[in-house]
Amino acid sequence: MTATQTTPQQRRGRVGRPFAGRSLNEIGLIAAIVVLYVVLGSTAAGFLSLDNQLGMLRDAATVGIAAWGVTLVIIAGEIDISIGPAVAFSSVLVAKGAAEWGLGIPLAVLLTLVAGAAWGALAGWLRARFDVPSFIATLGIWSALGGLGLYLTDALPVVLPESGLMDTLGGSILGIPTPAIVMVVLFFVFAYIARYTGYGRSVYAVGGNAPAARMAGINLSRVRVLLFATTGLLSAITGVLLAARLGSGNGGAASGLEFDVIAAVVIGGTALAGGRGTMLGTLLGVGFITVISNGLVLLGVNSFLQNVVRGVIIVAAVLVNVIITKRARATRET
């Protein structure tokens, strides 16, 4: 055997180390969530109550549904910061369509979902066709949708008409909040897409090395348009569920949601540089963010200080992510 040859055992070891790193990140998150439950369960009154746990599931769904799409976007080396205004505008769109435009609830929901996919596809098209950085493309969507939502409503809530469908979407099924059920179903769908489909493999390839992916025959433009159309659709779904929960559409709702979503994805181990990440990690990141937010509220922490804590968590998560990425790259090169 020459010096450059390797044994099968060595090759398996090299392949396995990045996966071991990801498993370590997920194990660490599980341990952190358990510690949080122990600490908050003993210090925050009502934290372990059934009502609070169900409320946390609702809150997790607001972050998690959009996070599945954003995970793929970041794995592909892109970013989407339009989530918050997109969710708020979606809630306005469904309420306006049902209450004022005479569409009825089913058509208003359908219009909202189609519109969500359309504005997401627009951001992806700008990225793919004109090479506009995804941060700038989605920043434009963020500004436009935020302004439209407030303009159409004069910054006032638009009350939804009575509807059994919206009552179900905003309520629960067999005691479990409907948004949480939607979140879990979509989690399994996206976990399957990311791991077992050609499209999922293309997303990882684009994030790992876009020029090489293009040379391998992957259509970068199609992948990017689909990625952002997906996040737009998921934002619209979240907006419909939020409107059902609140009983109205509100252009000022979901403020700052995009930061919680990105934080959950990054905390879950998805590399901001692209090419690495898992849906399971994002799920744990969503759980971590939700528990932290709920605990801060129950402990009576000032709302402004809550934002400080979230900011510290995001920076710390990015720092850990960068360190893990550098170590993984150094491991692959050795």
Could you explain how this protein is built, in words?
One of its GO terms (cellular component) is plasma membrane. By secondary structure, the protein is mainly alpha-helical. The chain has a domain at 48-254. 77% of the residues lie in helices and 2% in strands. It is built from 13 helices and four strands. Strand 2 and strand 3 form a beta hairpin. The chain is globular and about 60 Å long.
Q: In terms of topology, how is this protein built?
A:
Blueprint: H1 8-43, H2 50-75, H3 83-99, H4 104-130, H5 134-153, E1 158-159, H6 164-170, E2 172-173, E3 176-177, H7 178-196, H8 198-208, H9 210-215, H10 220-246, E4 248-249, H11 257-267, H12 279-298, H13 303-333
Antiparallel strand pairs: 1-4, 2-3
Helix pairs in contact: 1-12, 1-13, 2-7, 2-8, 2-10, 2-11, 2-12, 3-4, 3-5, 3-10, 4-5, 4-10, 6-10, 7-8, 11-12, 11-13
